[in-house]
Amino acid sequence: MSENAVMRVVLHAPTPDALLRARNNAANLLREAPKAQIKIVVNAQAVVAALDSPHETLDAATWLCPNTLQRANRQTRDPLQVLPHGAILELAQLQQEGWLYVRA
């Protein structure tokens, strides 16, 4: 990666434990590479965990799967964001765009 390239990392969290790891991974990465772009993509059981356990700094970088949100019959809360389509499609598209994928 060239010196001028911005590191773009997508962390995938499908479980509550994975969400905790993703938040820790993101915080650690941003501490060491503050210019990195981070997206935490949350689906499956981690969606309810994200809704029920706010994170002061990383919720703004957290994206929820709309399919899981609908199945859970829940609404999002600020600053969490809802993906425009399912998490798996989003993960595939981000990788196609050059984002680095990490399964938390």
UniProtKB/TrEMBL annotation:
This is Intracellular sulfur oxidation DsrE/DsrF family protein. It comes from Advenella kashmirensis W13003.
